[in-house]
Amino acid sequence: MTESATRMTEAPPRPASVFRVEPAARGIAHLVMDHPDRSVNVLDADAIADLERALAELEARAGLRGVVLRSGKRGSFIAGADIAAIGGLTDREQVLALVRRAHAAFARLATLGSPTVAAIDGVCLGGGTELALACDSRVASEESRTQIGLPEVLLGIFPGFGGSQRLPRLVGLSAALDLILTGRALDARRAARIGLIARAVPAAWLIERAEERLEALIALPAARRRDRYRSRGFAAWCVDRTPFGQTLALNRARAMTRARTGGHYPAPLAAIDVIERTLRLPLEAGLAIEAARVSDLVVGPVCKSLVRIFQLSERAKKDAVADPAIAPAPVRTLMLVGAGVMGGGIAELVSRHGIEARVRDLKPEALTHALVTARGVIAERLGRRRMPAAERERERRAQMARIQPTLELTGAGRADFAMEAVVEDLDVKRRVFAELEVRMRDDAVLATNTSSLSVDALAAGLAHPERLCGFHFFNPVHRMPLVEVVRSARTSDRTLATAVALARALGKTPVVVADSPGFVVNRILMPYLGEAIAMLGEGYAIADVDLAMRRFGMPMGPFEVLDEVGLDVALKVAGVLGRAFPDRMPPATALETLVAAGRLGRKTGAGFYRHRGGRRRPDPALRSLLRLERGRRVPGGDTLAERMVLAMINESARCLEEKVVADAGAIDLAMVFGAGFPPFRGGVLRHADSIGLARVEARLIALKAEKGERFTPAALLSRLAASGGTFTAPPALPA
Questions:
Q1: What is the pLDDT of the chain when averaged over all its residues?
Q2: Is 472 a residue of the active site?
Q3: Most CB atoms closer than 10 Å: which of 188, 407, 489, 572?
């Protein structure tokens, strides 16, 4: 608000309330959150200010016996704090003031003078959970939509509206550490089991049960109204309540966090430190420490990077990708041609989301392999859920019943969507589509799971090429969140909209890419992998090259990735890209040699590493097989990682310049979700911006002089470096 605005003689009309107070029977009031400007409730600055007003109204209300906190939005409680605002905050003192204001408001709710119960139905995350924790007690609906948790660590911060203080006091140290450090959410029954809520109840009775809970609290002395920690046995009490047990739990959490994050993510370790320092302090002293530490994190680079990736992911899940007037076609039945591991993974994913999957292959053993793969993924997923064995078996049978193996293309006419996942061969795939097109309805969509072949080339010979698009999954299908949806020159808006809608319905994050060799992820990865192979030829050890990239933040090193993907698959992609871009992607002779020797990676027990019993180890015979130079010492610092990362940055700039994707955000999201580029760095192009494009260009020029033309800086990169520009826009400041 500007200074001149504050001097206006006539105040503007007060906006619609975020919180309202509704009277109920027997001296009970409902404190209802219903943000007028949002589809879900979010705790932004307006909400905190309006909460203060509503609390003042409750404090002044005569005869108030109790308060039920609930949502005015059907099927949703409070989704958390305003993530866009978090991403835009750059002034630590501003953050600290905002956090302390929220602390003060929540403290007023916690000390209202009459008991309070939160009635939770639907999503209750982050600040929403923290607001509920300020109440004396909580009840929640048993519906699957109800999820209660504190996911702040996934955004590079930790619960800063009191969660790090109130949660350990309520559920104990070990359970609190688990929720805060993983960011996972619980359903109502599991939340009740750890004491996070008092009761899990049917949604239809939620308000009635909340008021019953309130009446029970009203009957108690004021000092006993707040729900408190109750140990779940002697061992739990020792961990949660004795100094020795607490120290043990904190040290274990710290060690596990360091192993999981590699020290790249400061928020989990900061949360552990804050909890450790405040375990035996009064609540208000603990809140002051919480506020100081979380304010440091909010303005830090990791938070900004993770918030940006989250926002890009949300954009990919919601934004229109074609004419908004064109509605996507519903997909109830999918025809999948090509079984095996990839086919089994796709069939499991599709059937999990209620879509009938008809899987066709020419070989019975391939169909068997696909069913075994699907059954294994289902068992793994259901095994993580706490449910009765009979219920687990019913769900498994129901899902497997939606997977129908066949040696023929019978039933193709009923399919709304057909996808091929056969061998990466242009002629084979064309024959598949020729067979499918004549059997399928005119309005059905055709899709290819190719990782590198041209969708336009695959459409050659089709009567209706506008029906074909790319739908590229990443392996393993059930874990990798990305799908590249490939639009060829002839793909129609309806086909594109249907494919993107299907990806979203399957819980995947779609990135729309142009029909370009390697699309986005494989095109950017191949120079990176090629540079690793070049280093091997120069005498650097495989283990040193892989270690350099793991230290950079990649989940696996380049040779580990090649062995996981399969050297035969990598060789085919390298061939496509080598023919398209011969100046910077030379022939992969090392891959050719290993594939010719039958070393295809983990699936054959040997690739760049030897694989046995799920473990990989260096292979002394590799150097002689590839006729490599004598080993070289690793140069100091991050020289190896820098060289491989610069290759990715340069190719990313070319993809952006050629408009393979809409913008830099799409490249960064694709590389984080499809290739494991470190999220804390914000993506390949955001990482380049953080280095400085002038410095990136200078290092590429130096490497070009030393290593060759493949390091010639991309034209777009050089233009931006000369103008002082960036690939990605800076975070927007709050209005």
A1: 92
A2: yes
A3: 188
